[in-house]
Amino acid sequence: MPELPEVETIVRLLNQGGLVGSTVSGATLLWPRSLATPGEAELQARLPGQTLRRISRRGKFILLHFDPDTLLIHLRMSGDLRIIPTSPTPPVVHLPRGDGQNILPTSPIPPVLHLPSGDDQNILPTSPPAPLSLEWRGGEESSSARVDESTLSSHPSSFLPHDRFLLHFANQQTLAFNDPRKFGRLWLVSDPQVVLGELGPEPFDEALSPEAFYIRLHANHRQLKALLLDQTFLAGLGNIYTDEALHLARLHPLALSHRLTPQQSAALLEAIRSILKEGIRRNGASIDWVYRGGDFQNHFRVYQRTGQPCPVCGAPIQRITLGQRGTHFCPTCQKRD
Ligand SMILES: [Zn+2]
User: Fold this and answer.
1) What is the 3-state secondary structure (H, E, C) of 36-79?
2) CATH (one of 3.20.190.10, 3.30.1330.10, 3.40.50.360, 3.30.565.10) for 4-196
């Protein structure tokens, strides 16, 4: 599941994709349940004609700021976005009302998006990924393809199985929302807070001081792993970055939030920010997710490293199950008390 660094990577890609400033010419909803709100008829009546002003991220949500509406996208388990160059004549698309499989013209080759060089949080990737190497790991029909530009140019318009929503722009580009497992959701709203109102603070929010974080931890009486996964406590963390941050902070995943000292609390906040920055710098982790040149998976401290040596002390990494999710930690570095 994409977490903050992966979603941030996608947003940066999208911002470099040429969509901003263009106007929506039409929308194709291939899987109606992907659209949380409003109904399809209202979306079709509202969205065409609106101009995309900017693309941003809040937690794990992607926000496409139109004028006046905002389209919010949550990728959940398997969602992905890509930009497809389209021909001046819109493709003929027959709307399936089934699950949308095997109806559109398909290609295993997604188009290439280049990573941005700009940044607004001073956490630039230090090196660009390999943008021309794409590997599709999109689920049960996964196939992989290593492609180069010449191959791509012969596939100027590539729709994929599991495309759920297509947003066509007047500049001859289409934004495709692909989601094999169908858990992803889209919302078209006039006020994003209707969807985002319950989210906790952004990890990089300067207002989230060590003191404020300590107070938030102590206002909850919960185990750290579960609390950090709770998007109303802090927005953006998932299983990977929570395990990594807890190891860096030398805190046990089952430790109780209100037992942390101010020093432990400050160390945890610093570890969360450090791990997320590294994840963004490495364009995210490419596991169970579309390859974007991200390589954070090659630098995991504990995540999915059960039995392998802790990078700090050498003890074998342990795995426990919390709420049906695997949790990885070092029993030596991360004492319970
Ligand atoms: Zn250790």
Assistant:
1) EECCHHHHHHHCCCCECCEEEEECCEEEEECCCCEEEEECCCCC
2) 3.20.190.10
